[in-house]
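Input sequence (79 aa), recorded before submission:
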Amino acid sequence: MQIMRDVLKGNGMNEERIVQLEILAAEQEKTIAELSGEIAEQWKVINKLQKKLDALINRFLELEEQAAPEIPVTKPPHW
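Predicted structure, token format:
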């Protein structure tokens, strides 16, 4: 942010200000590329975790189904 404040000082557009703007733009481009790479890696991790979670949910439901006793369908006593 200091670079931006320095760039915005002064009234005339001179070569130094143009160079500072180009440096700022290059730094921002690099930061954006790095963040984009991080996001891509995080999506890979999220997808792996989602697959593991889905598998665990399915396994849990299978075990729950196996452990649950069969409840006979009977008429209530007042019938």
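Checked by second reader. The mean pLDDT is 86.
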